[in-house]
Write a structure and sequence with these properties.
Blueprint (H helix, E strand, L loop, with lengths): L3 E6 L6 H14 L5 E6 L4 H8 L5 E2 L9 H13 L3 E5 L1 H10 L6 E6 L10 H21 L2 E4 L2 H6 L8 E4 L23 E6 L8 H10 L6 E6 L5 H11 L5 E5 L4 H7 L2 E4 L8 H8 L3 E5 L4 H4 L7 E3 L4 H13 L1 H18 L2 H16 L4
Parallel strand pairs: 1-2, 1-4, 2-3, 4-5, 5-6, 6-7, 8-9, 8-11, 9-10, 11-12, 12-13
Helix pairs in contact: 3-4, 4-5, 7-8, 7-12, 10-13
Length: about 375
Amino acid sequence: MVDQVAILSPGELFGGVERQVLDLCRYYGEQENPRPLPVVFHDAELAQRLREAGLEPVVLRGRSRYDPGLVGRLQRLLEAAGVRLLHVHGYKATVLAALLRRRYRCAVVKTVHGRPEPVGRRPLAAAKTFLNHRLDNLATTRGVDIACYVTADLRRRFAGEHTGCRARVVPNGIRPLDGRGFARPAELDPGAVNAGIVGRVTPVKGIDLALAALADSVRDQRVVLHVVGDGPQRAELRRLAEHLGVSHRVRFHGFRRDAHAFLAHLDIVLMPSRHEGLPYTLLEAMSLARAVAVSDGGGLPEVVEDGRTGLVFPVEDVKAMGAVLDALAASAELRRRLGEAARTVQVERYSLARMAGTYREVYAAAMEGML
């Protein structure tokens, strides 16, 4: 049995990575084993939510983004706490763990949440993404005992890059949500069919494709699109909505701490992503019995069965997306049937207890070599 685990993550933003860290820390904090030690590089939203859950995170600050002194500070932290197991998320945590293992005996588990995304469109940003990806892969092959992938799609995609470490697919999981506990946001129009995209506002999420579908292929004029989240593409998408003549049918709400309230009351939860791992927003929408419409990018079709638990359309196919939205807008009964089936699947296959239990098994397997 593993007594303690240090969970390292950036904590700079609040997305799927941070959600998994928060949920695992909360869950393990309620159990006897393992005791979680959350470590973040940024004192931001994740750190705040951990504190609200009664878990004080260690903020590992560096003098610069690539401060070599972080290795020594992490070693001293783990030695003082007696921790010999690290669960890392993101390239920085992975690289730090690989360097640490040269001077401190420990086991390392890594979760891969998705494919690398460019931080911008300029050549320098692309070069930075490429370099970080190469460093991440090198650190994974040399410093990780077991690599966990949230979907089988990700495991296949990284099979040739993550050689030398054991692989395991561990889907994300959540506690079931009760939609009755969330008040309907005033921003949702009672006379409209409210579709929503909830998450980071970045190119990979395909929000531009949804705007194009709204302008070109969605025939039902009652459909209004709500974008709940923030990111570098927000201003650009506002301009695109105006250019396409659909700004009157699009609402940009920015980052909202009450995002669950939107999910609970949306008629349609839309995910037009160009690629995905296994988004927490999808599991939350399923738990809340929402009708989901998703692209077949990445791991989404592993979770959503077309016609039974949601509707699936080809990635970047604007016309097919429009047809799916029209079909859902036209039938409240179809939305209800898909939502109810989705909720059943979430409870049975994608629970927090199941995910946390699987990670316990992974931790024990990684620690075998330490005995």
